[in-house]
Amino acid sequence: MDRIVGFGQSAGQRDRASHGRRQASLYRFVHPVSTLVTRAFPPPSRAAGAAPIVLTATMGATDQRRFDALRQAHYPPQRNHIAAHITLFHHLPPSALDELDRLARSIAADTPPPLAEVSDIYSLGGGTAFRIESGELLSIRARIAGHFHGLLGAQDRGTPRLHITIQNKVPSAEARALVAELGRDFRPRPLEITGLAAWHYRGGPWEPAFARKFRGARR
Hints:
Elements: H1 11-23, E1 53-59, H2 61-74, E2 86-92, H3 97-110, E3 117-123, E4 128-133, H4 135-147, H5 154-157, E5 163-167, H6 172-183, E6 189-190, E7 193-200, E8 207-213
Antiparallel strand pairs: 1-2, 1-7, 3-4, 3-6, 4-5, 7-8
């Protein structure tokens, strides 16, 4: 599920924008995923009305900026409502939010940041993505999937192909051209994975629910 704050706003617009920031209800590029991770472990945020929960893996700040820039450069602006991300689960029921947060805290507390690699660029047909290889991240996902096995929809039951989408909803020829362009200088490289984040999905910008940072020591 792939979906910036301007200047020159009217007073009413500024008031509404200010209110939105106070409520921390909208996810914007000026508020990257990594800034949601805190040490205080705040309770999960409850958005008004039931909405499916998306669970993602968060990236280090340098990687987040890099993929955000690629997404802003190549994603159709009218559809680009969220930052670059790695989706682990597309649709968890909103009633599972507290249970998911408890599980994420437990995993994050004793799990080191998983090793990961950006291994390839490939076409989505109407878009472009970077393939992510990480057996350790898939193991973390499998632990969560096992816990919620009776609540998973068809899209979340199998093992996913981890990826970061930087372009979507474009003609296939445009996607193939971007794959060829980026592929000329591409070399596999490490990717920093820092934690887990949950979001309320309402079809537009995602609303943050919680974020937990991996804190385990690697032995």
